[in-house]
């Protein structure tokens, strides 16, 4: 079992002058939610997610040794990088990357030897309200690990992936679940072998075929900026009146969903997943300050899903992130019927009728 110290890279000489890598990493949707954290991005409770397939960030990392004869700009900063979003400079993304580099410097000391150009884009619209922090931090972390591997070719694949997840966690907690698929657990849990607070691990048992190619249609209810960031929301779990019960409940729900994923019990799956979504929002509504991220159309959609499920017994359910959008989850064998229901009854509640069809996926992919 790896501990924090195992991720501190030994001094590596910057033996490579320049180069580039490109990785794409997907978003993920939590079934048991991460909400609340301790110092240094340690989760207050374990979480489990489906890795997605289509909602991805594609990031190219180009690097050149700083003391190279080629001029790379006048400023002498500890971390030297340019940030491009869809090929154009994007200054407002830089502070987040700067903070990320500061957090991971201890583990990746070679970062200060290079100037980087980080060129990133998403497969989903930027203003869709879909957080790109999970896919973005995962894609960047994979690239950084490609550089580390180039400097230290003996590294094995397991270590590569675990450290990538470890680094991604330091960028954004949920990002550590975007390195691998199809189902990932992050956070120490008694019944999940090798689970860790430091990185995500692939769900260790066989997953029932009911979940093969499970569908997630994301209904874009509100694309505006969130009033409260996830980071602030996590902080509000400190001194939250229901925090301890909530963290205990997450452990129990993870135990239950483990059995559900093994046995394929979709009725139980629905109960846990919807309860988790509503509990997440209940935590927001009962913190101080309190806030509501659901919109009227979020509730309209939830009610329509419940009605449809009652009338048809089709095992379709919803989950929510820290926002107003609704993830509609259902098995592949009911896809046509559910998509028909979504397009006729739910799309009207989406902003500009926008939604994204996604499904469970396998994790980050190296493109270059
Ligand atoms: C509601 O991973 O975005 O999506 O660690 O502060 O970057 P930071 O938070 P973030 O929190 C996501 C919370 C959630 C639930 C989940 O994905 O488990």
List the helices and strands and how they pair.
Elements: E1 18-32, E2 37-38, E3 42-43, E4 47-65, E5 80-85, E6 88-89, H1 94-104, E7 114-122, H2 133-151, H3 157-171, E8 183-186, E9 200-202, E10 215-219, H4 230-235, H5 243-263, H6 266-285, H7 296-312, E11 317-320, E12 326-330, H8 335-346, E13 355-359, E14 365-366
Parallel strand pairs: 5-7
Antiparallel strand pairs: 1-4, 1-14, 2-3, 4-7, 4-8, 5-6, 8-9, 10-12, 10-13, 11-12
Descriptive notes:
This protein has 368 residues and is of the alpha+beta class. It has 2 domains: 4-206, Ribosomal Protein S5, domain 2 (2-Layer Sandwich), CATH 3.30.230.10; 213-359, Alpha-Beta Plaits, CATH 3.30.70.890. 33% of the residues lie in helices and 23% in strands. It contains 8 helices and 14 strands. The chain has helices spanning 94-104, 133-151, 157-171, 230-235, 243-263, 266-285, 296-312, 335-346; strands at 18-32, 37-38, 42-43, 47-65, 80-85, 88-89, 114-122, 183-186, 200-202, 215-219, 317-320, 326-330, 355-359, 365-366. Strands 1, 4, 5, 6, 7, 8, 9 and 14 form an 8-stranded mixed sheet that branches. Strands 11-12-10-13 form a 4-stranded antiparallel sheet. Strands 2-3 form a two-stranded antiparallel ribbon. α2 (133-151) crosses α3 and α5 (243-263) packs antiparallel against α6 (266-285). The chain is globular. The protein binds ligand DP6.
């Amino acid at each position: 079992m790896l501990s924090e110290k195992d991720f501190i890279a030994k001094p590596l000489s910057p033996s490579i002058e320049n180069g580039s890598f490109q990785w794409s990493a997907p978003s993920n949707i939590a079934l048991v939610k991460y909400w609340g954290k301790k110092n240094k991005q340690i989760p207050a409770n374990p979480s489990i997610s489906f890795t997605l397939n289509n909602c991805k960030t594609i990031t190219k990392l180009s690097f050149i040794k700083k003391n190279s004869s080629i001029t790379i700009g006048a400023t002498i900063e500890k971390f030297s990088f340019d940030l491009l979003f869809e090929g154009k400079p994007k200054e407002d993304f830089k502070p987040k990357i700067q903070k990320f580099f500061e957090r991971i410097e201890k583990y990746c000391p070679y970062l200060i030897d290079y100037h980087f150009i980080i060129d990133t884009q998403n497969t989903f619209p930027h203003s869709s309200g879909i957080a790109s922090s999970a896919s973005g931090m995962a894609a960047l972390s994979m690239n950084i690990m490609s550089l580390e591997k180039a400097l230290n070719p003996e590294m094995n694949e397991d270590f590569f992936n675990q450290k990538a997840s470890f680094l991604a966690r330091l960028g954004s907690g949920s990002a550590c679940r975007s390195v691998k698929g199809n189902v990932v657990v992050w956070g120490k849990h008694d019944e999940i072998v090798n689970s860790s607070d430091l990185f995500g691990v692939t769900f260790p048992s066989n997953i029932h075929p009911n979940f093969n190619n499970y569908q997630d249609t994301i209904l874009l209810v509100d694309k505006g900026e969130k009033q409260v960031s996830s980071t602030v929301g996590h902080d509000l779990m400190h001194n939250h009146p229901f925090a301890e019960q909530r963290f205990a409940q997450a452990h129990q729900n993870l135990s239950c969903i483990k059995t559900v994923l093994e046995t394929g019990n979709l009725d139980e799956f629905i109960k846990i997943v919807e309860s988790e979504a509503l509990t997440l929002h209940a935590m927001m509504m009962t913190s101080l300050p309190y806030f509501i991220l659901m919109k009227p159309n979020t509730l309209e959609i939830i009610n329509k899903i419940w009605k449809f499920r009652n009338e048809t017994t089709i095992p379709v359910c919803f989950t929510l992130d820290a926002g107003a959008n609704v993830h509609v989850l259902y098995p592949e064998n009911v896809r046509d019927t559910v998509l028909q229901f979504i397009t006729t009854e739910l799309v009207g509640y989406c902003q500009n009728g926008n939604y994204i069809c996604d499904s469970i996926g396998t994790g980050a992919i190296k493109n270059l």
